[in-house]
């Protein structure tokens, strides 16, 4: 049975737009879309970066989240983000934005086509060996056939997740992501805090 979660943006998102203003005002336009991470979830990630200072952030599924987090990392002068992106055209769009904003020092996009439903080995090989913060917002999982598309992330990247690593899964309002979380918790020692308003779950391993 799936849990009932908030799926539409709410007051937390209105607040989040204000909180994010320093990272959005007077900077180049970002093409937010319905595929973009909810802004309240993005604020949670920004706060995690400020509080935990992850050296290596990896994001499955590039987008405006990659750029916003890169802006924050550049501003703070510590840490970098690497995004895996299956779609060549979108990887190029995000890569161009990174270049236009001179964010290449702290961010990059790896184009990794899907192979049997997940990012190909060549793309994964380009990721940092030790990941401190993993954001799972891809591959696309917005149809019944693709509902479990994000499940491989924890297993495929397990060897790169250190003892203090944090894993964030987006879109937990959907039945597919709830099933992914349940399977991760059943089959690994990770446990996840569900944050319905932000539509994310934040996972840690017992130390
Ligand atoms: C859930 S989205 C990832 C969104 C990204 N993490 C963000 O919050 O901006 C999954 C996929 O949708 C595609 N996508 C995301 N944003 C898009 C946009 N604004 N326009 C076109 N495609 C987009 C990309 O292929 C991406 O990997």
Automatic annotation (TrEMBL):
Record-linked SUPFAM superfamilies: S-adenosyl-L-methionine-dependent methyltransferases
InterPro entries: SAM-dependent_MTases_sf
One protein family per Pfam: Methyltransf_24
Protein name: Methyltransferase domain-containing protein
Organism taxonomic ancestry: Bacteria, Bacillati, Actinomycetota, Thermoleophilia, Solirubrobacterales
